[in-house]
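Just curious. Protein, please.
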Amino acid sequence: MSESPSRRVAVFIAPGCHLCEQALAVVQDVQSRAALEVEIIDITGDAKLEAGYRTLLPVIEIDGVCAFTYFVTVEALLERLETIDGSPPPHPGRAGTM
């Protein structure tokens, strides 16, 4: 049986952000269970990233698609990784749904 292809998860953070620390812990937990390529992106000092992400931190993208802002749970991330493109589900009210 072949292993599932790795998903790329980017986590946009800033130092001192407690929500970012929580999101990183969730991503690391999920990484121990699923094939993930994780990239941690510190937005500090990058004017374009600051403008686009500062008020939404942490931001988690799956394969380039914004999947979560502010918070994420292990269960929600695992569920989202099962979708084709990592995009949020069509209904609101779930963890990290935009």
